[in-house]
User: Fold Spore protein YkvP/CgeB glycosyl transferase-like domain-containing protein from Sneathiella chinensis.
Amino acid sequence: MSKLLMVSARDVFSDFADCCAFELEDTIHEALDADFLLLGKQHFSPSSTNLNKNGFNNRKEYDAVFIVTNNFRKLAITIQMMEKLGIQAKQTAAYVFGAYVHDLQYFHLPAAKHLLPRYTALKKVDHFFGPIPETLSALSNMLDRPFHYSPIAVDVLNVAHEGQERWISVNGFGRQEPGVNNLLADTMNRPGSPHVYFHTNSMVSAGLLDWKRYREQFWHLLRMSRLSLTFDALFYNPGNRAKHSFVGPRWYESLATGTVVIGQAPKTDEAKALLDWDNATVDLPENPAKAVDYILGMLSAPEELDRIGQENIRQMRQRHDWRYRIKDMLESLEIEQPGILQEQIAMLRRQAPLAHPQAANQAYP
Assistant:
C-alpha cells in the first residue's frame, strides 16, 4: 500500500477563492487514506491543531506528497514551509487551479533560478496538474516539468441531492454581468414578486472566518436554486483580468447540485467535450431585457427544469467528481489506486440515476 501525504496551508491562506482547493484537499485525504499535514501561521510552522488521520511522520518516506493551491505564489510559499519540516517523498504533485502563464512571466529568463526564490521552490514539484489546456505547454517549458491537463471537478458524492425543494429562482453568486444582474434584481426582488434572485456581487467581504460552514451554506443555497447564472470569463471581463476561456468551478458547482445553468458557456473545444449533453448550459440572449424575459419563461416550466437538473446530476456523478481526476493523477504518478477510491467511484456510478427519457434528447428551445 502506497504511503501518501496531503499537505495543506489553509491556516495561512483562507480567501473565498481558496475554498475549492480546500475541498479537493479533503477529497484526496479521504479517498486515498492519506496522512494530512496542516501547516500553520505561527512562524510558518506546523499548526498545533491538525486534521491528521494517520499521523504525519517526518521520519516516514512517502511515495507521494500532494499539494493543492489556487495559484503559483501560494504553492511556492507552501513548498518553502514544507522544506523546513524535512519531509521525505519520492515525488511531489501539485494541482494549481489558477495555472496562468502570466504568473510566471519572468521564469524564462536565465537569471530567474538565481534571483527568484519562487522559481527554486516550484522546481521541487515533480508533476503539475491544471485545468486550462492552452497554458500547459508553455508552463511545462517554463518549469521544465510535466504539466498534466486535469479539468476542475467537485465532490459530487457529498453535495448532490435529488428532490430538494427549490425556492430560489435564480442564483447569481460571485462576479456577474451587471446588465442581467441588475435587471434581475430589480425585477424579482420586489414586493409581490413570486421569484427570488440571490446574488452576492453587491457585497464586499474582507475574508472568511469559517470556510467549512460558508461552503456548506453555499452548497445548500445552490441545491435550493432552480437556475444558476454563469458567464464565460471572457464574456464579462472587467479590467481584462481573465486571460483564458475555460470551464471554471461555477459550472461544476451548479451542475452537481441539479440547478439549470444559464448565461454564456465557453466556446472552446474543451467546453464542448466536458459539457456535451443537452442543456448543460442554456445560453441567454446578450440583451439584458431579452435575457430576463427568457429566464421568466424558463421558470414557468418547473417540470422541464427538474428533468434538466436530474440529468445534470447524473452526468456529474458519472464524469465530473474529483475522484475521477484523482484516479487520473495516480496513473500519471504510477501509483496504484487504493481500495477506498475504487469503492467511492463505484458508488458514484451506482448512484447515477437513469436519464429521464425527455431530459437529454432535446435542447431547451
The mean pLDDT is 87. The chain is about 40% helix and 15% strand.
